[in-house]
Specification:
Length: 410
């Protein structure tokens, strides 16, 4: 077909969709709630003309028999189903001309805008956070209200909420013009390298842990195709992850730059020990039991401050306290504070590991002091991770700073 003939064919398709939607709208919108999807109520007689227009366009006709990739699965196209989905979208407000234009682009390029939504527990946002590269972190109420959204964010009843919680935010990856339609068996394109969306979600989680002071839990993840002309159901697929109830942290605007900086740093090849230390910090933040929390924090400190390959584990408490103090301390008073904090936290870790418990404080002030020590240690671990993302220091040189500072002048 010439360009002019294609223009005319898609124009006719748009008008046919528009006519079918107008006729089907009263039927669909007044149909009883019998558990079926709205498109199931569209009469076949109204769909037939749309199907005929689809089959008259070569690029669209060729889609039947091809496959698309969703989240861990593949699907196929049929003109019968495509006709129904496009009419249903027009019934629910999509512009018929936009549907036809979108379908034309998809049929020619085999590309679509793929949106991956990872529901997150334990995080409240003041607004949408745009981290660039198609990555955002959004409040649940700001997300597109797809069928999958209702399942992920609004389906829990009051009884279920006694045992779990409803996600309040999501990490969203918008992949524009992604190749998603393939001609061949699904096995050819399902065994691909790690999904780019998965990589960005991992980095966002790491950024929230280290830079955002959060311990985000993962809940459902779903994918949808954000094109009105997508020739199938827009909801690609969904998986349930689930990681339990998490303490909720509000991510203010002042933390966004820190989250973005950590994400950028984690885009570079990272030492496995840094990744594991981040996981330990997240685990500590998510725990209410102080024995478990301080054990995680102790392991995190060891990972970050005993990484020198020497195998010398003597005087661990003194060594990690000294290294932390000289690595992060701004002046003598700050170094003294950090040294005392790490020493106290590591003593608690040793008691927790060797006895399985912590001695109960004798007063409310004692409980408050311990809680403050644990909170400060969490923040210190985050500071250490940020500092060490640029590489490991020469610990001997770090210690020599102490000797040089203490040496008497000439």
């Amino acid at each position: 077909m010439t360009d002019e003939e294609l223009d005319s064919a898609y124009e006719e398709l748009a008008r046919t969709i528009e006519t079918a939607a107008k006729k089907a709208s009263p039927i669909v919108l007044s149909a009883p709630n019998d558990g079926r999807a709205s498109w199931a109520h569209i009469p076949e007689a109204l769909v037939g003309p749309v199907r005929a227009k689809l089959m008259a366009i070569p690029d669209v006709a060729a889609l039947e028999g091809m496959h698309f990739v969703g989240l861990n699965r593949a699907g196929g196209f049929s003109h019968d189903a495509t006709s129904i989905y496009l009419v249903d979208r027009a019934i629910h407000g999509a512009n018929a001309d936009e549907i036809a234009f979108s379908l034309r682009r998809i049929a020619q390029t085999k590309q679509s805008t793929v949106v991956t939504v990872q529901a997150v527990l334990g995080l409240r946002l003041e607004s949408v956070i745009d981290l660039g590269a198609g990555l955002t972190i959004e409040p649940a109420e700001a997300l597109a209200k797809t069928d999958a959204w209702f399942w992920a964010f609004a389906s829990l009843d009051d009884r279920q909420l006694l045992f779990t919680e409803r996600p309040t935010a999501a990490i969203v990856v918008r992949d524009v013009d992604r190749r998603v339609i393939f001609d061949g068996p699904p096995s050819d394109f399902l065994t691909s390298p790690e999904d780019p969306a998965e990589i960005l979600i991992k980095r966002a989680i790491q950024g929230l842990i280290v830079g955002g002071g959060a311990a985000p839990g993962l809940d459902a993840r779903y994918v949808y195709f954000d094109d009105s002309g997508w020739p199938h159901m827009t909801g690609g697929s969904m998986v349930s992850v689930g990681s339990g109830v998490k303490p909720t942290v509000t991510l203010g605007i002042e933390r966004v730059a820190q989250v973005a900086a950590v994400m950028k740093a984690m885009a570079r090849p990272s030492e496995p020990v840094i990744v594991r230390a981040i996981e330990r910090l997240a685990s500590a933040r998510g725990r209410s039991d102080q024995v478990e929390k301080v054990t995680d924090l102790g392991v995190c400190l060891e990972m970050l401050l005993m990484h020198d390959g020497s195998g010398d584990n003597s005087e661990i408490t003194f060594k990690i306290a000294q290294r932390a103090a000289w690595l992060l301390g701004r002046d003598a008073a700050d170094r003294s504070r950090i040294f005392s904090l790490v020493r106290d936290a590591y003593k608690l870790r040793s008691a927790a590991v060797h006895t399985g418990s912590l001695k109960e404080p004798k007063s409310a002030d004692g409980w408050n002091a311990r809680a403050a020590t644990l909170r400060s240690t969490e923040e210190l671990c985050a500071q250490l991770i940020v500092t060490l993302l640029d590489g490991w220091p020469d610990w001997q040189a770090v210690v020599l700073q102490l000797h040089q500072a203490a040496a008497p002048g000439p």
